[in-house]
Amino acid sequence: MDSNSLSTNTFSTNHTDVLDTLNEVLKQRRHAVAEESYVASLHHKGLNKILEKVGEEATEMMLAAKDAEHGGEAERQALISETADLWFHSLVMLSHLGMDHQAVLDELARRFGISGHDEKAARPSQ
């Protein structure tokens, strides 16, 4: 994450608070000096760079998942770390587009009780 990352004791034990707090940090750092903040440097480089990072992290997470399938605790922890990187960069992407995690959480909540097959079939054609 960011070299200016908040320490873990900044967050409460409520994991939703982690997302809310991270969202606020991302907002603050969006317009910070690029040399002083990793998040600001991504925003200054633009959406394509952010998407490149999301893709890179997704690939690293998939490779870690393959390793974790038959690996031990170290491989499982590596998967957690890579997943956190993917989520973080996805949140940076949403922030860059003026969006945040709440819309994603709302969409996930909307899907509860709906068959995955039915939900997918109801989506507009892409």
Describe this structure in words.
The protein has helices spanning 15-30, 38-45, 47-70, 73-96, 101-111, 116-122. With 126 residues, it is mainly α. The longest helix is centred in the middle third of the chain and has 24 residues, at 47-70. It starts with 14 loop residues before the first helix and ends with a helix.
What is the rounded Rg? 17 Å
Mean pLDDT: 88
Q: Main beta sheet: strand number and arrangement?
A: none
* Class from helix and strand fractions: mainly alpha
Helix fraction, binned, reads over 70%
The total of beta strands comes to: 0
User: Uncertain segments of ≥5 residues (pLDDT<50)?
Assistant: 1-9
If helices are DSSP runs of H or I spanning 4 or more residues, what is the number of helices?
6
Q: Assess the beta-strand content as a share of residues.
A: under 5%
SSE ordering = HHHHHH
Q: In angstroms, what separates the terminal alpha carbons?
A: 33 Å
From the structure above, extract its key features:
mainly alpha; 126 residues
Please specify the SSE layout and strand pairing.
Layout (H helix, E strand, L loop, with lengths): L14 H16 L7 H8 L1 H24 L2 H24 L4 H11 L4 H7 L4
